[in-house]
From TrEMBL:
Record has Cytoplasm as a keyword: yes
Lineage of origin: Bacteria, Pseudomonadati, Pseudomonadota, Alphaproteobacteria, Maricaulales
InterPro entries registered for this protein in UniProt: ITPase-like_fam, Maf-like
Protein name: Nucleoside triphosphate pyrophosphatase
Keyword set includes Cytoplasm: yes
UniProt entry keywords in alphabetical sequence: Cytoplasm, Hydrolase, Nucleotide metabolism
Similarity field: Belongs to the Maf family.
Gene Ontology terms: cellular component: cytoplasm
Subcellular location: Cytoplasm
Cofactors, names only: a divalent metal cation
Superkingdom of the organism of origin: Bacteria
A GO molecular-function descriptor: nucleoside triphosphate diphosphatase activity
Taxonomic source organism: Marinicauda pacifica
């Protein structure tokens, strides 16, 4: 019993490893910018479309069950991508300070080049009104996490200090809503029942 994770995300790998699952990692290389360009509608639908594209891309070249995942940051209906530098991360965190945003996730499973399961999640994230001194210290200590996630934070670690309130599935915040995924894996004979 195993499956393929079509993602290079260290957070997603850790969630699945910690759950004791047997899987391979084969990151999908899809043109996310092309999918995002001209997209209109709920950003949760965009996250799901990205997850489906990743699952299908790997499923086209591999046998077995493939799990694709993506997550987008929705601030007042505007899409925010990963920061490409510390300077972009700082600007992003300043824009999020004292405001509420949504992390919208999409998960899809494919087998034989067809989607066999899909799931969407949405988590409400309330960023506290942190001081400039805190932000400076955070930027100095955060390191690689600044450019690895859409919010320039890793909620499972140092990034938790940025928040005053979070509503939603903890694992969905991290990028992989584990309980729905486990249920699907059992249904697809890819995890113990």
């Amino acid at each position: 019993m195993s499956f393929i994770l079509a993602s290079g995300s260290a957070s997603r790998r850790a969630i699945l490893n910690n759950a004791g699952l047997d899987f391979e990692v084969d990151p999908a290389h899809v043109d996310e910018d092309a999918l995002k360009e001209g997209f209109s509608g709920d950003l949760g639908d965009l996250a799901l479309a990205l997850a489906e594209a990743k699952a299908l891309a790997v499923s086209a070249r591999r046998d077995g069950l493939v799990l694709g995942a993506d997550q987008v940051l929705d601030l007042d209906g505007e899409l925010h991508d990963k920061a490409r530098s510390v300077q972009e991360a700082e600007a992003k965190l300043r824009a999020l300070r004292g405001r509420t945003h949504w992390l919208k996730g999409g998960i899809a499973a494919a087998r034989g080049g067809e989607i066999v399961w899909r799931h969407k999640s949405a988590c409400r994230m309330v960023v506290r009104d942190f001081t400039d001194a805190f932000l400076d210290r955070y930027l100095d200590e955060a390191g690689d996490i600044l450019t690895q996630g859409v919010g320039a934070y890793a909620f499972e670690g140092l990034g938790a200090q940025l928040f005053e309130e979070v509503e939603g599935d903890y694992y969905a915040v991290l990028g992989l809503p584990l309980l729905p995924v486990l249920s699907m894996l059992r249904d697809q004979n890819a995890a113990p029942v």
